[in-house]
Amino acid sequence: MERADLTEAAQLASVDGNWAIKADGVSFTYSGAGRKALDGLNLAIRAGEFTVIAGASGAGKSTFCYCCNGLIPHFVRGQLDGDVRVFGRSTGSSKINQLAQDVGLVFQDFEAQLFSTNVELEVAFGPENFALPREEIRRRVRESLATVGLTGLERREPATLSGGQKQRLAIASVLAMEPRVIVMDEPTTDLDPVGKEGVFRVARQLRERAEFTMVVAEHETEEAIGADRVVVLDGGRIVADGSPRAVLARADWLEELGVQPLGAAQVLARLGEPVALTVEEAAARLADRGYRIDPASAARQDAAEAARAAGYGEVVLEARDLAYTYPNGVAALSGANLSVRRGEFVAVVGQNGSGKTTLVKHFNGLLAPTAGEVTVLGRPTTGQSVLQLGRSVGYVFQNPDHQIFAETVFDEVAFGPRNHGVPPGEVKERVAEALAAVGLAGRDREDPFAMTKGERQRVAVASVLATRPHVIVLDEPTTGLDYREQRRMMDLVRRLNEAGHTVIIVTHTMWVVAEYAHRTVVVKDGAIWLDGPTRAVMAREEELLAASLKPPQVVRLGNRLGRAFLSVAEAVRLLERPEAAGDAAPDDAAPGRAAGRGGRG
Amino acid sequence: MDIYLYVEADTPLHRLDPRAKMLMLLALLLMAVAVDHPVLPGGLFLLVLVLAHVGRAWRSLRRVRTLLFIIGVFSTVTWSLFARGETPLFGPVQVEALLYGIGTGFKLVSTIAGSVVFLATTKNEEIATGLIRIGVPYPVAFAFSTALRLVPTFVGAGVTIIQAQKSRGLDVESGGFFQRLRKHLPLMVPVFAAAIRSTNQLAMALEAKGFGARPVRTYYLHLEFRPADWITAATGAALVVTALYLRLFSDALRIPGLIR
Questions:
Q1: Coil, strand, or helix at residue A3?
Q2: Contact B205 A420 (CB under 8 A)
Q3: Among the four A6, A435, B52, B69, which has the fewest Cβ within 10 Å?
Q4: A353 CA: distance to closest CA in chain B (Å)
Q5: Pick from B190, B201, B217: which is nearest to A404 by CB?
Q6: Are residues A223 and A349 in the same domain?
Q7: pLDDT digits over B53-80, tens only?
Q8: Residue A99: CATH number of its domain
């Protein structure tokens, strides 16, 4: 009953010329920050609309989300100008906990927003605060859990859920308050591809219920296809606002803004063809227009890849029948075999909790095998300390904030070499060399805590490089970075590999794997599930899906056409139209293609 | 990685009202410290083991077994050495002192194990709700249960941070005291930074879920005193009185000839 009343009110409100969310000339500067995070933003969102807010880090997405439920200006300190209204109510003059009944906010960090000891109590927390009767709370808990597909897990401890389940639980805990607007701030950033899909499936389902207004901030665009509207922010201002088709079609332009473009759209745009947003649509269009993969280019590519594989050196890392059981009895690895040769670039992929990080932590001795053996440069790791192994294997942790402690970048990067007893003169030289390698030359006097996340991640890499290890292991090097930062990071990793380092990355960001790694190892349930050249692994979509992984659009597009494309540039290079000469309009394809390659916006 | 002590199960101990369990825990603590003779603390320790079995708390107890063992042995040895008695046993140790040492060891071990069994069979929210029902203001009870909740989070971050710094060659085990203290800086700074960040996130999540929106809130967990709870509480109360009596007015279970 209550629901129906609310819906009617919402409809009345929008007919009335009111909006679910209306931001008028909103500017916000975080205290201590030099520039505005939002800069005169005007954005009105209709009741019942599903809006995706896209943009690079620092574009103002989170800031806008925090403005919607009053965290700005009530919790986050800074200077707010302009007015944000939620169903006509000004957020400036309402308390956050009162707004919570109208606006539910799902945070990016799903670990930090869950605090109860079981799933049921987590969901009940919101309604409890609004003093609802116990029976009503029980109903809401049941319904919210059913909506996000967690029915049956009521008694589970949130910490034991997978990442995707945790984020869906966070959504359920917000749904239980039955807000009219649901705002999600990059809800899928830390999730594996299938976890991401689960969250977006829930979002789509909610959207079908007319009473909800949904606002989702994202820097990946594939999931924005189903939205009513896509708004692109840059520097705190709106730079595009329209239907997904209109906005996402501008793939190269989005990429320049630091937003990950749709692979399918980008390929078609660069070929000068009308844009398609989905893989199926794009594959059909390419087939229609008579495109095929040029056999000669494909053969050349195969030969080049075979030559590269033949050029690898001796085995530097080897795991034989490796098993590892954590002290609490969880068997994370059971019988993993892997050998890595000098000069390889290997991606170890798998869903959250598959055992991929456990596997690589054996390579620098952080973990010792429960059974089996791990050798580094031919010597077993057992009996060697992390310090000793650190001379050959450098390990960059996922979150740079778990290691940065020094007051200057110089001291931070010098930490490793000093621990290894390198004399001061040489430390200086090594720090300079490492900073140059990560593109931070000359910034050694800066405070690492004041740098951006992408820069801090590069400081972390430099601090490992400075010990001059031969093998470099990077755990989730792109997590928490936006598309532009991810690319800069991975270009850096590629340069390290080209300079002779053996590189192992652990990730579930599949476009990074496709575009950068030469070899892909898929870990599933503590064992090696697939292992081979990236192109071959990427072609096996079904087996990847079984491991909760899904290749990016451009790869899937290639798979439909008979060969996995590892990047958009490669797709454009390999696709040709033999019958183009006989086409009715032969001139429009070729110039478009040339212009596309030039990076037309 | 799960670092919570609570074990989800449906046992008579889990079903008890948290208030009855809290009273029982208090009784256990008082009984343990009431007398010096090892018979009572030793008996309490056996009782705790039985309760651990009933409440299926073995998994949690196992996780603190090293700690229990070290504390038990260490206090038995030190107190045997520090206390004095009349009947020589071997070297500087007298029979009375040894008994005293064993008693002290069991006191510590039974109270720690008892608390672990309590935490293994009582959810954070139940503790909070129980505290509220006995008159503790909601914000205080909530802060208490949140603190319990955050400990494992910080421990988890700490483990990662130690691994990250070890990977960069940090070696905290060698060197003199001050040198080792200085080596902890690379651990402490990120731990505190992480703690501040996650506390801040938690605060935002609480606000966004309407924390404190109404002067009175509903408690979803329904606490109800059933006959078993009344019996437990009554037993607990009787034990508290007995403990106070033993400590203050009785000479029973003392160790004759012990000089502290």
A1: helix
A2: no
A3: B69
A4: 10
A5: B190
A6: no
A7: 999 999 889 888 888 999 999 999 998 8
A8: 3.40.50.300
